[in-house]
């Protein structure tokens, strides 16, 4: 199964991704996670990406596309993959299509998680992420058993630098201008599966898994 998760920042892409990849046994490829890992390790890519991420802007296409191209060529992607946060521009979408065509493959579905702005702000601002394993929580909607500590690995939970209100507002604006056109792009290809992201985590997953089976 080759899947893409589309949706504004804070919509719940990463949250759904972690359940979908377990169910379908495919790798979870999050370009945001790849950049955060590079920032943590102090690589050149991380330094470049951070300049854009801190401002709520997209990292330039040429930096992102080559990473994804290499990643989907790895052996564990033979049976499929889930892309989370990529593509984010029509030009990235076209580059992905070209790469998949080159290896005679295509996408099975593009899951579009639709959520209104008020909810996005609440979700992004209450988001907490584990410093060690990357698991995502929410202070109100999906809290850890013990405040500030990851349920699975006991790692420390932190608030993402780009989850401050002004940066989230900027990221939503960038999403509307640069990423939303991908909904039309994939609708024309007959790949879009629209899901109402205002529902609970379980209800959304239920809807996604029913549609993927059907
Ligand atoms: P994205 O990857 O789209 O930016 P996340 O999956 O990190 O979004 O979710 C953003 C925040 O909202 C997290 O704190 C997560 O726990 C919470 N969240 C995700 N889905 C839901 C939901 N359906 N209902 C309530 N909170 C949610
Ligand atoms: P995310 O974790 O998906 O919310 O991404 C965090 C940030 O990483 C975004 O706000 C962008 O700055 C950057 N980023 C992640 N994926 C991409 C992408 N496909 N294209 C450009 N920038 C990206």
How would you characterize the overall build of this protein?
This protein has 214 residues and is of the alpha/beta class. It has a single domain, classed as P-loop containing nucleotide triphosphate hydrolases (Rossmann fold, 3-Layer(aba) Sandwich), CATH 3.40.50.300. The chain is 48% helix and 15% strand. The protein has nine helices and eight strands. The chain has helices at 13-24, 31-40, 44-53, 61-72, 90-102, 117-125, 165-179, 181-188, 201-213, and strands spanning 2-6, 28-30, 81-84, 109-114, 127-130, 136-138, 157-158, 192-196. The strands form two sheets. It has a five-stranded parallel sheet, sandwiched between helices. A three-stranded antiparallel sheet has the order 6-5-7. It is globular and about 45 Å long. The two termini are 13 Å apart. It binds adenosine-5'-diphosphate (ADP) and adenosine monophosphate. Adenosine monophosphate is lined by residues 9, 31-32, 35, 52-53, 57-59, 64, 85-86, 88, 92, 162, 171.
Write the layout of secondary structure elements.
Blueprint: E1 2-6, H1 13-24, E2 28-30, H2 31-40, H3 44-53, H4 61-72, E3 81-84, H5 90-102, E4 109-114, H6 117-125, E5 127-130, E6 136-138, E7 157-158, H7 165-179, H8 181-188, E8 192-196, H9 201-213
Parallel strand pairs: 1-3, 1-4, 2-3, 4-8
Antiparallel strand pairs: 5-6, 5-7
Helix pairs in contact: 1-9, 2-3, 4-5, 6-7
Bound molecules: adenosine-5'-diphosphate and adenosine monophosphate.
Adenosine monophosphate binds at residues 9, 31-32, 35, 52-53, 57-59, 64, 85-86, 88, 92, 162, 171.
């Amino acid at each position: 199964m080759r899947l893409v998760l589309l949706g504004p920042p804070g919509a719940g892409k990463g949250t759904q991704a972690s359940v979908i990849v377990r169910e379908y046994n495919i790798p979870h490829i999050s370009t945001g996670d790849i950049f955060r890992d590079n920032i943590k390790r102090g690589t050149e890519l991380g330094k470049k990406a951070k300049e854009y991420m801190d401002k709520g802007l997209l990292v330039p296409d040429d930096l992102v596309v080559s990473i994804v191209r290499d990643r989907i060529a790895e052996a564990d992607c033979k049976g499929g993959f889930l892309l989370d946060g990529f593509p984010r521009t029509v030009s990235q979408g076209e580059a992905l299509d070209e790469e998949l065509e080159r290896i005679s493959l295509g996408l099975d579905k593009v899951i579009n998680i639709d959520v209104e702005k008020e909810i996005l702000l609440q979700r992004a601002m209450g988001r907490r992420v584990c410093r060690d394993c990357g698991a995502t929580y929410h202070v109100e909607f999906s809290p850890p058993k013990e405040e500030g500590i990851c349920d699975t690995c006991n790692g420390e939970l932190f608030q993402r630098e780009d989850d401050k209100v002004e940066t989230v507002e900027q990221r939503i604006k960038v999403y509307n201008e640069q990423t939303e056109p991908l909904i039309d792009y994939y609708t024309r290809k007959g790949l879009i599966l629209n899901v109402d992201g205002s529902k609970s985590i379980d209800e959304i997953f239920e809807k996604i898994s029913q549609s993927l089976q059907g």
